[in-house]
Structures are given as C-alpha cells and as structure tokens.
Automatic annotation (TrEMBL):
Family the entry assigns: Belongs to the AHA1 family.
Identification of the protein by name: Polyketide cyclase
SUPFAM superfamilies: Bet v1-like, Probable bacterial effector-binding domain
Signal peptide positions on this chain: none
Residue span, Activator of Hsp90 ATPase homologue 1/2-like C-terminal domain: 39-175
Source species: Chryseobacterium luteum
C-alpha cells in the first residue's frame, strides 16, 4: 500500500512539474509567418485561394487524405465562403470560413478543428513581385491551448510549414496546367503553319488499333478518350485543372491505311502508381515541330497533316510522329478543335 502511495505522489509531482513548466515557459498560442513565391501572375494565384472549391484541390491539408469528405456552402468564392469536412479514417472534422477579402491583396481564413470553439486564424497576403511572379505571406495565429496540450505548440509551426511546402508543389502543377491551357487558347491562329519547340511531356493513356473507315476512327477516339478521362478523374481523383489537353500520337502518313495504331493520353505532372494494366505512361521527348491549328470535322484534318508533311519535305527535313492535341475534348457528332504537331529533324 505504501508503495502505491509513493508512486501516486511521484506521478502527482511529475504532472505538477509538467503543468508548471507548460504554464510558465510555453505560450498558450503561437504566432508565426511563412513566405513563398510562385512564378504566376497575382490574379491567377489569388483565384486559387478565394474560391474554396479551387483551394481544396491543391491544399495538402485536404488532398493528403483519400477518405476526406467536403461539403461546400455558397458563396463558393470570396468573403462568406465556407466548407465543412469529415475524415473518418483519421477521425477528424472541422469547418473553414473566409471571413475577409481584399481582392488580389489579402484574405482571412478561420479554421475550426474537431469541434474546438477557438479557431486557427490565417491571414494571407499577396504581393506582385513582377507581372509573372507573386509572393504569398501567411500570418498564422493558432488557438489557445490548455496547459496540458501546450506541448503541441512545439511542432505546430513545422507541421504548418510542411503542409505549405507540399501545397505549393500542388499549386504550381495546377497553375502550370491552367496557364498552359489559357496561353494555348489565346495564341491560336487557325490554318497558319508555325514552328514551335516543344518541351517533354508525360502522358498516361492507352495504345489502340482501330479501323480507318469513315467516322469509325473518330468514334473509337471518343470512346477511348472517355475511358482515359474517367480513369484519371474518378479512379485517380485528378481534377480538370491538374492535367493538360489530351494528345493522340500516331504515324504522320498512316491516314491512308485501313487500320491505324495510335497512343492516346492525358498529360500528368509526374508518374504515379497505376494498378490497371490497360493504361501506361509514355514520355514525349523535347522536339522541334511544324504546327498548324485546325477546326472542323475530324476527317478534314488530313489536308492539314499533308500541309505539314509537304513543308517538311520542302525544307528537306526528316519527320517523325504526328501529335494531335485536342484543345476541346473530342465529342461524337461535333467538330474537333485541335493542334497538329509534326516533329521534324535534320
């Protein structure tokens, strides 16, 4: 009995010492600042922060768990925007609000975690470093913690910083795809032959052999694009602004063949595990291309392809594959809007 009393006294003393040290030497809440820069204009960056549907697509706090379920409340954008979330796997839930917005300059978020009545308050400032570069500044004020939970303040800043680092990688991928699409749409000049240097791309897609009979090939492309799109968005959980335009790669002069083999894929930023053997990755190496934009029925692309081949022959250039980039997703019964690229070399 005496032994247990001694143990009890020791435990009480240790708890008291812990509580005293937390009370006198550890702040009840924490304030810190984190700064980052991204190579995109301030208007495009800000729109990813003030729209919570965009925000949750790249912020690691929400993307890191596959089991998280998010509900969005109107207005989805700007002051008054709100979400609630539940993550049964990690046994967490909470609510997030945009309490203040100064367009293209600053936002204030409040995050209530696990029914805590005291929120984490995050003030985010946006500063244009140049027309194509933005500085993002997070000023974080954590909620007050009880004496026994104040030890959490030792790793709060590191955990928040790690989340921002991962989020910035996701944000750059999202903005990269979005800006690339916007720039391509803005630079389109139909039926004009141009020369472009194309960077390497990583495509996830499928290899196909299909009949080249009238309309049969395009129907086959539409069907296979739907397979790839559904796999990328539903099975892999990617959003539309996380990947690029679909690209079809085939021999440049096989439009006369009875059967055509092609690879159709969607550009992704990095390789990921793909358990379905029907899909594979293909790397498109950097190349110099003769390019022409075409809009019309799919069969009509042949004339544009012939223009590219004739140009290559005239310039005494050898050529490789033809790449058909669908600026608008292929839909049966509708015209195509595409970029045709013929890789050329001496």
């Amino acid at each position: 009995m005496r032994f247990f009393k001694i143990i009890a006294v020791i435990v009480v003393l240790l708890v008291g010492a812990y509580a005293a040290s937390m009370y006198f030497f550890v702040d009840e809440n924490k304030d810190f600042k984190i700064e980052k820069e991204v190579d995109y204009p301030i208007d495009k960056v800000f729109s990813q922060f003030n729209n919570l549907q965009h925000f949750t697509r790249w912020n690691n706090f929400f993307t890191s768990s596959p089991s998280i379920d998010i509900d969005y409340y109107t207005p989805y954008e700007g002051q008054g925007g709100a979400i609630s979330y539940v993550d049964p796997k990690n046994d967490t839930d909470g609510e997030m609000f945009i309490r203040y917005e100064n367009p293209a300059k600053s936002l204030r978020y409040q995050l209530f975690e696990d029914r805590n009545e005291n929120p984490t308050v995050v003030d985010v400032q946006f500063k244009a470093v140049s027309p194509d570069k933005t500085k993002i500044i997070w000023n974080v004020h954590t909620p007050k913690l009880s004496v026994f939970r104040r030890v959490e303040n030792f790793w709060t800043e590191d955990r928040f910083a790690e989340n921002i680092n991962k989020s910035m990688v996701n944000l750059k991928n999202v903005l990269g795809n979005k800006v690339e699409k916007d720039n391509q749409m803005a630079s389109i000049k139909y039926d004009s032959l141009m020369v472009e240097n194309e960077e390497n791309k990583l495509l996830l897609g499928i290899n196909v052999s299909a009949s080249n009979k009238k309309e049969a090939l395009y129907k086959n492309i539409v069907m296979n694009y739907s397979k790839i799109y559904n796999y990328v968005t539903m099975d892999l959980g990617k959003k539309d602004d996380e990947f690029g335009f679909p690209i079809l790669i085939t021999d440049a002069d096989n439009y006369k063949d009875k059967e055509i083999s092609y690879f159709l894929g969607i550009p992704l930023s990095k390789k990921i595990g793909v358990p379905d053997n029907n899909f594979s990755f293909r790397t498109v190496n950097p190349s110099q291309n003769y390019v022409i934009y075409y809009k019309g029925n799919y069969e009509g692309r042949i004339q544009a392809v012939q223009q590219l081949i004739q140009k290559a022959k005239k310039d005494e250039m050898r050529f490789g594959d033809i790449r058909q980039t669908f600026i608008e997703r292929p839909i049966e019964g509708q015209e195509v809007n595409m970029k045709l690229s013929l890789s050329v070399f001496k």
